Amino acid sequence: MANYKKILIVGLSVIIIQAIQGVAQASVSQTVLMFLDRDKDGLISLKEATRNITILEAFDIIDMNEDGFISLQELTASNLVKE
Fold first, then answer.
1. What is the pLDDT of residue 17?
2. Which positions fall inside the EF-hand domain (predicted)?
3. Which residue, among 49, 56, 74, has the nearest Cα to 64 in the 3D structure?
């Protein structure tokens, strides 16, 4: 029974750490989006991306659905924004 509790605690700890890392990444992505999104439509256009050379150079890669805009989901999924 003691081993079961230890395994459960370790497993829950891993899940909590992964959740915290996900929230931290999202908040950094949100900060970048808020900074670049001049018209406050929740998206980064190519023109808005000119304010950040890294985002600009990778724009076509980050814009996964090829709609000409980068959403928060695309920015977060790109893993381009680091802590």
1. 57
2. 50-83
3. 74
